[in-house]
């Protein structure tokens, strides 16, 4: 199969995939952004395409000609354990066939409960829940395929997203609309514990950097993440920016809230430990290796509030 030596194909057009596609184009790469619908706002330098990577044939069609494939596909929480392994197998076989490098957006789930231990790339994978075990199994399969010489793959792990375009996060649609309008703001668990949040622009720049550096292959990296603050302190930073106290509702137990319904809540319950113990991710290895620093959290909050202001001001359709 013919390969374009500078074509980066991004699979998945959620907040991470969309931000990554824009970042790759900004860096001068040719970019194809693939999603099931192929639709979305135009992005300078990015060609959108329709594709289904749930089958090998679909994955091969989606990545044709790519030098680097970025796997940012995700599915609803209640479908992940069944769907994500199928997607992985299709994408792995496709990149093995074409010879493209593979960059995978990953989560902290494989670590499981850490009891406050700072998470580094050397932290053991001790997940006990179904989603954490599934993610750990996927990651072992990626790295085994690399060690066997079948594919060239690298994994970039992120903490909870925050930033423009991010809705389904604990710092997303349950927080910023209420902060801007005086409505309720939802927080989970113990808000006096430190909790890492990765800016979506740092997710994008980190994955783009991994895509540009073949020497990064064969291991897990923690994407650049600002120093952890307590969620209470993050809320105070938001209060300073909106000029009013937040009407915070703290859920000590998970229940439906904001954009999250009962189906989501039932599926997310096994991960609620992330809000009852410190969740601190260290990204110093990535920062030192590639000479980058994460975006300061305050700057990320400024950009996020601006995005939500625009969203709230837009006419409803």
Account of the 3D structure:
This protein has 317 residues and is α/β, with parallel strands linked by helices. It folds into 2 domains: 7-160 and 198-222, Rossmann fold, CATH 3.40.50.720; 163-196 and 227-313, UDP-galactose 4-epimerase, domain 1 (Alpha-Beta Complex), CATH 3.90.25.10. Helices cover 38% and strands 17% of the residues. The protein has helices at 15-26, 56-63, 80-98, 130-147, 176-181, 200-212, 231-242, 262-268, 284-290, 297-313, and strands at residues 7-11, 30-35, 46-50, 68-71, 101-106, 152-157, 160-162, 184-188, 194-195, 197-199, 220-222, 229-230, 247-251. The chain has a 7-stranded parallel sheet, with helices on both faces. A two-stranded parallel ribbon has the order 7-10. α4 (130-147) links the parallel β5 (101-106) and β6 (152-157). α1 (15-26) crosses α6, α2 packs across α3 and α3 runs parallel beside α4 (130-147). The longest helix has 19 residues, at 80-98. The chain is globular, with a radius of gyration of 19 Å. The termini are far apart. It comes from Streptomyces smyrnaeus. This is NAD-dependent epimerase/dehydratase family protein. Pfam families: Epimerase. Residues 12-217 form the NAD-dependent epimerase/dehydratase domain.
Provide the descriptors you would attach to this structure in a database record.
NAD(P)-dependent_oxidoreduct, UDP-galactose 4-epimerase, domain 1, Epimerase_deHydtase, Rossmann fold, 7-stranded parallel β-sheet, 317 residues, 13 strands, two-stranded parallel ribbon, alpha/beta
């Amino acid at each position: 199969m013919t390969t374009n030596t500078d074509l980066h194909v991004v699979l998945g057009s959620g907040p991470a995939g969309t931000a990554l596609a824009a970042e790759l184009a900004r860096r001068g790469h040719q970019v194809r952004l693939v999603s099931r619908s192929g639709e979305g706002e135009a992005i300078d330098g990015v060609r959108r395409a329709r594709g289904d990577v749930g089958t090998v044939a679909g994955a091969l069609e989606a990545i044709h000609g790519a030098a680097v494939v970025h796997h940012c596909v995700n599915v609803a929480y209640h479908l992940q354990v069944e769907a994500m392994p199928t997607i992985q197998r299709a994408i792995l076989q496709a990149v093995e066939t074409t010879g493209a490098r593979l960059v995978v957006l990953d989560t902290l789930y494989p670590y499981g409960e850490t009891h406050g231990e700072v998470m580094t790339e050397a932290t053991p994978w001790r997940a006990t829940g179904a989603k954490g075990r599934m993610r750990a199994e996927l990651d072992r399969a990626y790295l085994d395929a690399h060690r066997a010489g079948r594919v060239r793959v690298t994994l970039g792990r992120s903490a909870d997203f925050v930033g423009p375009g991010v809705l389904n996060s604990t710092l997303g649609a349950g927080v910023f609309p209420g902060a801007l309008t005086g409505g309720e703001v939802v927080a989970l668990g113990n808000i006096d514990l430190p909790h890492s949040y990765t800016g979506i622009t740092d997710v994008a720049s980190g994955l783009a950097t991994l895509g540009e550096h073949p020497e990064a292959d064969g291991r897990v990296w923690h994407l650049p993440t600002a120093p952890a603050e307590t969620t209470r302190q993050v809320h105070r930073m938001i209060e300073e920016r909106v000029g009013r106290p937040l009407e915070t509702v703290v859920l000590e137990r998970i229940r439906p809230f904001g954009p999250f319904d009962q189906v989501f809540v039932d599926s997310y319950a096994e991960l609620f430990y992330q809000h009852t113990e410190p969740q601190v991710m260290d990204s110093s290895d990535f920062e030192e290796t590639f000479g980058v620093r994460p975006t300061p959290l305050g700057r990320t909050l400024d950009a996020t509030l601006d995005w939500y202001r625009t969203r709230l001001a837009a006419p409803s359709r």
